[in-house]
Input
Amino acid sequence: MKDAPVILLDEATASLDVENETKIQTAISELVCNKTVLIIAHRMRTVADADKIVVLDNGRVVETGSPEDLKKQDGFFAKMMEKSRKTGM
Output
């Protein structure tokens, strides 16, 4: 990986099973220390440890905040997290 200060990952693990997704996420976490990382993902587990999440719905920002704050708001993000727990995503 190039030593860039900003890394953009667009659905980087979308086609992987859970076991391999976890391995790839662990490797990426080690490679991106001290960098700004933008992650675009539909899988909730991919963004669960983010510092800040921006939730889009039909191209509009509907929520922003840490995962903990968004869970407490019981809004769009919290509903997506609950749905992902039920479906295993």
